[in-house]
Structures are given as structure tokens and as C-alpha cells.
Fold:
Amino acid sequence: MRVSAQLYTVRQCGDLADQLKLVSACGFSDIETTGLHGMTPQEMARIVHQSGLNLRSAHFDWEEFHERFDDIVEVLHLLECPVAVMPWLAPQARPGTARGWKAVSGQLSDWADRLRDHGVCLAYHNHDFDMFGAPGNTPLEQILAQENIYWQPDIGWIVAAGQDVADLLARHADRILSVHAKDVDPQGGSDDRRWRNLGEGVVDWDATIRALSSTRCTDLFVEHDETADHRRTLQTGRSFLTERLGGIG
Structure:
């Protein structure tokens, strides 16, 4: 497993080129991007190539998959990126029934088949809303019932939802391609006030990394949803995870 950077952490730090410069300055070689930035595939690929960073995985929201699927395929091809992730459904777009989530999972499965034809895996990224529901029939479980969809667990959101990290990682070990390494203090406030730099929240990272060592996970993407100090968050996260990875094995 490698320690990589998620660009959502630095989304307020200028344009895409500025964000990539900051991530590189903090010592990262590998990244996960967020969306198409309103660019053509060629424009986006040029900026990422110029940064010298390696694109390991890329997030695209539901609307981008629906409206710009061919552009997604093209930018992944240009950047030799093997993983696309669908990370978010807006509240107004979330189904209120199991039948509705089944339709969502079916659409994701269709996109996964189409991406697989281009040598790309599709993963789903969880928050908390998709982990609640009848046991065995949560939105996340309905999505992962589709055998062609992988999973990118967000460790912070799993803990925030009161779920057992090790149990979930073990149950879906063969589906996990990467994780979002995000720390949290559920008692630290509501909304974005609960998020913490890595090692400053309640996540048991040693146990989490041990559990991940039995999965297909290749990347730990450092993320903080609303940091006040982007550089410190990235540098702290990179050094914290690098040290713990060195202690596992």
C-alpha cells in the first residue's frame, strides 16, 4: 500500500495546477482527482502530466458519469488511470426505498461494464447515509451486491456512522481497491467540525491498516473535508501513515 493524496482536501487552494503544486510540495507522488474541473479531457490530462504526479484513481460524480461518460473514458486513457470512483449522490437524488437503491446499483453496474471494456474498474465511495437501513439491505450492501462494482471505503465516515471498521473491511476484502484515510472525532462537533488530521481523531489506524493488509487495497488517500491548514494536513497525513505502514508486516 502507498500513501497518496486526495485533491478534495485542497479544493479551495486555487485551480487544478495550483492544487497539484501544493500536493507535490508536500512530498506526494500519487494522487486521486475530483471531477473534470470543467475542462476537456485533453486540457485536464495536460495539467496533470505537467505536474509530474501519477493519477492512481479519479472521482466523478453521478452527473458527470451521466452527461460526460465518454470524456471520463478519454481522460482516464490519457492519464493511464485504472480506477474511476463514483463518490456522491446529492440528498435530493437519494432514493427513499430499497427498490430505488436497486435501480441506482443497476446503473452503476452498467457503467462498470462499460468501463471494464476500457480496462477501468469502477468503485463506489461511501459516506454515512448509505450505511444505514435494514441489516443486509443497506444502500452500500445493495451496491456491492453487484459483482462488478468495487468499494473505496471512507474510514472517517464509517467511524462517524458508528460502524465497525474491521468487520466491514473483512466482509468486503475482495472489493476494496483503495481507501480514504480520514480521521474523525464524533464528539468534536457536528458537520465538518468533527474531522481531524490523521492521528488526531479516534480511528484506530494500526488496526485499520492491519485489516487492509488482507484486502486488495493499493492506496491510502489522505483526506480532510474542511481543514484550516492544507499543508499541515497533507504533511501530517503522509508522515503518519508512512510510519504506520512501516510498522506493519
Q: What stands out?
A: The CA atoms of residues 17 and 47 lie 6 Å apart.
